[in-house]
Amino acid sequence: MGKTYYITTAIYYVNSKPHIGSVSEAISADVIARFKRLTKFDVFFSTGTDEHSQKIEAKAKELGIDTQKFVDDASATWRNIFDRFNISYSRFIRTSDSDHFKVVQEFFKRMYEKGDIYLGKYEGWYCVRDETFLKDSDLVDGKCPYCGGEVQRISEDNYFFRLSKFRDTLLEFYEKNPTFIEPESRYNELLNILKGGLQDISVTRKSFKFGIPVPFDQDHTIYVWFDALINYVTAVGFLENKDMFNKFWPADLHLIGKDITRFHGIVWPAMLLSVGLPLPKKIFAHGFWNIEGAKMSKSLGNIVDPVEFAERFSTLANIPFDFSVDILRYYLSREAVFGLDADFRIESLFRRYNSDLANDYGNLINRTLNMLSKYKNSAVPTASSDPEFINFVSSVLPQFNEAMEKYAFSNALESVWSLIGYLNNYIQVKEPWKLTKETEKLDIVLKTLLEGIAYVSILLQPFMPSVTKFVLDKFGVEKREIEEYKELVHIKTIEVFNPIFPRLEKEKIELVGEANTSDSKESNVGITKITYEDFSKVDLRVAKVLEAERVKNSEKLIKLTLSLGSEQRTIVAGIGKFYSPEELLNKKIIIVANLEERKIMGITSQGMLLAASTSNKEKLTLLTVDTDIEEGAKIS
Ligand code: ME8
Question: Is any ligand 1 atom within 6 A of the Cβ of residue 12?
Answer without folding.
Answer: yes
